Each structure stands twice: as structure tokens, then as C-alpha cells.
Amino acid sequence: xxxxxxxxxxxxxxxxxxxxxxxxxxxxxxxxxxxxxxxxxxxxxxxxxxxxxxxxxxxxxxxxxxxxxxxxxxxxxxxxxxxxxxxxxxxxxxxxxxxxxxxxxxxxxxxxxxxxxxxxxxxxxxxxxxxxxxxxxxxxxxxxxxxxxxxxxxxxxxxxxxxxxxxxxxxxxxxxxxxxxxxxxxxxxxxxxxxxxxxxxxxxxxxxxxxxxxxxxxxxxxxxxxxxxxxxxxxxxxxxxxxxxxxxxxxxxxxxxxxxxxxxxxxxxxxxxxxxxxxxxxxxxxxxxxxxxxxxxxxxxxxxxxxxxxxxxxxxxxxxxxxxxxxxxxxxxxxxxxxxxxxxxxxxxxxxxxxxxxxxxxxxxxxxxxxxxxxxxxxxxxxxxxxxxxxxxxxxxxxxxxxxxxxxxxxxxxxxxxxxxxxxxxxxxxxxxxxxxxxxxxxxxxxxxxxxxxxxxxxxxxxxxxxxxxxxxxxxxxxxxxxxxxxxxxxxxxxxxxxxxxxxxxxxxxxxxxxxxxxxxxxxxxxxxxxxxxxxxxxxxxxxxx
Length: 546
Known about the structure:
7-stranded antiparallel β-sheet; 20 helices; alpha+beta; 6-stranded antiparallel barrel
């Protein structure tokens, strides 16, 4: 469960752009699901969409998934099925990798590739379609959280990524995604160590694929090597290669609607700097080269010459950034929002959007600075104050977070999200009665707001009131039958109470919905208390034996 799911409207010109600042958001199951395909035929497996040319999509998978002669189909997330053209199957060198293609007029998401070196102990997720087992009569999509426990320096073959958790047959060829949803590897094997009789679950780093001289790999690398707009901060998230901002059709390199041609090759000569657009163009070119100071100077000069055009340019970019934010393409949204803050520095919505984006990259200090700028421009916007509370919550400054939520509730007294955030702050501060009071106010404002009901269960369990905790979680699951968190909490409580069979059945269902809830560290981040965590450890140990 997200700790705060506030909604704020970013008004750009006459257009309302909705931003949903889900604080500390990691990879979502929906995001992974959309780039993962199911492969059926002579053998079964999974794959990941990495490229599109016209109506032809390229999928990366394992060679051993498609090497056997026969007919194969590819199923996308929307359950559409496409015939795999056997002539398009290409094994990549002598590796256990293959490119396959399918044709569709539908618009499917492609996975962004991660180009930098991976690190051991990184959190990743393996996505794929598991074969039928003792619990299921059909193939099912699963997303399994992992930790890279080891990166083999001198592997016997291309399989150098070693993962912490078991995977399932049918997931071979599926993507290994990092917490930002970027493709970092391909899962493909399990090997038993004869010395210890234990199995290692392995993957191929995406860098191996990028070294292969296939046309697709070359094209993806060439795109990545073009100058792109990227943050100049030293945070490791911003050091990865980011796709350049795409442009729509423009007129003379800059449309009348305010598009900045940011993905065009750097010109060898600059236009005469006699008008605002010339400064904007050169500013973007400098930004792509990492010269943020020079870019800032050009943007300021452009503003002096034509402040209205500067604002128009910035608001167009802010609109695009907000749309990309909605589709969770944060790497592409960030540079747009950063440039927009230079071009439209007096628009509170631009700064609010930039602050929310900084939160996605866990740049909390930058986020707070941007949000305070937004607040100074629009002191009556309660949503900005709520997100400031969420930012301080991330910094573990819970009293400050509570103060911001209280301030925001003066502006929006019945906002369920703000009440929920304040309740969470009180809960961490062990002010349990105050926490329950805020959660109940949130529920009064929105009867179906199950996260608040779920958190009342967390408080009750921490207080030792297991019976009432169970009632809360049952209510939450009745409202949202696919909510994995209250479902798992309910399973643990029932198991601990002695109802093992029912607890086991509910727990298995919860984990199948969202495998992240098997991770104790993930549960800690979602406010599970010490008592519930201790009982959950016992339950998960029991679950592994069944």
C-alpha cells in the first residue's frame, strides 16, 4: 500500500493535467505486465517487447524457448494473440538469446533498456508466464521480487546474474526489471549445485544483448548514445542513459505551439541570437550536452526577449511531462519538467510537478525545495502541502510530516488522502488513538477507502487486538478483493489464531496477486508493526513448506 496517494491537478494554460504523486513508487505489476509477453508453441516461455518499427514489434527471449521447430504464438497483456513468424526468429550469436517478431496495429509499451553496470544486492523483479502447476490448471502471469545475490565475474557462459528467489517453469525468456521498470536482464535458467543440492536461478545481463551486432541492438544503442536531456545531479538514478524527448511535427525546427526540437542532432552553428526562440533552441542544445548553467543563461535571455513565448514553451513541456508521469515514464518526464521550471518559473503547477517527479527518484531535498517554491506561488493549494507532508514522511521526519498534513487539512478539511497521511504520521509516532481517529475521518469521507481500513487493522494488531484487526482486514478485502496487503495480513492473523488451513489458502492467494508481500523489508516500508512482522515471518516459513 502506498503511504500517500494524493491527487493534485496541474493546470497548464487552459488545460488540466492530472498528476498522481504516489510517493516512493517502485515498479508496478501493471507496468511489468504490459511489456511482458507469453509464448506458446512447441515449447512455452515468456519474452519482453523491446522495439517497434511500424507495425512490427521485436521481442527478446531465450533461444531455448523457440529453438524447437513448430508453430508459436505470442500473447500480449490485453490477451490478444499473434502468430509468430518463424522466419523472423534470430538466435543471437551462440547465446541463449533470440529476437522474435510479431505484427500488430495496437500500441504496446516497450521496455526501456538499462545501459549501465549492475550491482549486486540490487532489488529487481522477474516477470513472466508460469506454466500450470498443482495450484493452477492454466498458465498464469507472475511477478517475483528478487535480489541480485551475485554477479559472476567470469561465468562459464552468459548467465552471470544470480537471484535470491525461485522462479517457475514458463518464465524463461521473461524480463528482469529494476525498481524503475527498466530492462536489466533476461531470466532463463535454474541450475542445481551438486555440492549443496541447492538450485541457483539465473539471468543474462542486458549488456550481453547490447554487445550483439543485431540491427535492433545497434539501433537501440545508437538511440541511447545520442545526446539526451538528463539530470545533472550525481544521484545514481539520473546517471543512466535516458531516451531523448521526442518531438511532434514542427515548423522550422520549432512549431508555433511551442515545441522545442530537443531530440535533433546538435547543430554545428547556432542561429543568430536575435530572438527568443534562438535562445531556447541553444539552451536545449546545451542542456543535452550537460551544460545546465549555460542552458539556464540562454533560457533567461529568451525570457527577457519574449516572456510570453517562454512561458508557452514551458507549459507545453509541462503538459507532456505530466502525461508521461501518468504512464510512469519518469525518465522522460523529468527533463521536460526541469526545463519547464526555467521557462515558466512563476507557475506553481510546474514546480509541483517537478517536486513530485523528484520524489519518484528519491531526491527528497530537491523535491521539498520545488514543492516549497510551488507553495510560495500558491499558498492556498492544499495538495502541494500534502505532498510536502509525504516528502517529510519519506525523510522519517514524522512530526514535521504531521504538521504539513495538518496544515493541508486546514485548506481541504475532508480530503481522505490528507487524513490518511496524517493518520500514518500519528501511527509511526505511536499516537494510536489519533491515528485511528484520522483513518475513521478518511473512511467517513470515502466509504470505500480501504487503505485506511487496512491501517486501522495494523494499529489494532500492534495493540494486541487481533479480533478487531481481522474484522478490519476482512472489510478491506470485501471492498477490494484484489488488495494483496489486507489479504496477507488477514491470512497471518488467522494462521496465528490457529486457523491454519484458511490462513494458508488466503495467504497463497495474496502472494499470487503481488509477490512483493513475501518480502519482509517491503512490509516494513508499508508500516507493518513488529508484532505483525514477527508473525508474518513464521507464516511465510510455514508457507514455504506447504
